[in-house]
Amino acid sequence: MTKLLEDVSFDAQGLVPAIVQDEQTGNVLMLAYMNKEALEKTMETKETWFFSRSRQALWNKGATSGNRQAVKRLSIDCDADAILVQVEPMGPACHTGEVSCFSQTVFEEETSNRQVVHDVVAEIQHRRNNPVEGSYTSYLFREGIDKVLKKVGEESSEVIIGAKNEDKQELTSELADLTYHTLVLMELAGVRVKDVKKELLKRRSKSEVVQDE
């Protein structure tokens, strides 16, 4: 941590821009500034601290709103004059209530699909906690684990059929159905997307070790 402080190139005002990113979704949440003290406190507390240029004072993100950010990783760019702060957000990053301060898209050639799995997970959780009459997701939760397992089995079979038919569109559609029902099962079982990612990362690391040998 001391080496990080030594490596960072602060500007003439003693500040360095800090880009805050959701470590799970990859979404850029906000841009703020840190001085040396803010960076030190961020490393010590594992929460984000910044320096307000307008108030000329330190501030702890979420201290008032409760929307804190648990720091998972700190990186500096190749010129050491910007910091990437990867966090687990405890709420919206923006004072407007938006998840990200960069919510106003001014140009988009193609809609991003990076967030879609996390959005589907959030909707599944919402339907579990707030059942809606006529909602298929609410129906699955009402029926319980046996119904969900049956659907996962059915969709798995349909994925196989789609693959055997060599129909890319059919296979894509069936894979989407299987993914959705798997996410419902994960919610029932208390398994999170990040748990699966960690398991895949662990397996990948083991695989690379074996290959290196």
Could you walk me through the main structural features you see in this protein, from its secondary elements to its overall organization?
The chain has 213 residues and is an alpha+beta fold. It has 2 domains: 2-89, Roll (Ubiquitin-like (UB roll)); 116-208, Helix Hairpins. It has helices spanning 2-7, 36-45, 116-129, 136-143, 145-164, 168-189, 193-212, and strands spanning 16-22, 28-34, 49-52, 57-60, 69-76, 83-89. A 4-stranded mixed beta sheet has the order 2-1-6-5, with helices on one face. A two-stranded antiparallel ribbon has the order 3-4. Helix 3 packs across helix 6 and helix 5 (145-164) runs antiparallel to helix 6. The chain is elongated, with a radius of gyration of 22 Å. The two termini are 32 Å apart.
Question: What's the arrangement of secondary structure elements?
Answer:
Layout (H helix, E strand, L loop, with lengths): L1 H6 L8 E7 L5 E7 L1 H10 L3 E4 L4 E4 L8 E8 L6 E7 L26 H14 L6 H8 L1 H20 L3 H22 L3 H20 L1
Parallel strand pairs: 1-6
Antiparallel strand pairs: 1-2, 3-4, 5-6
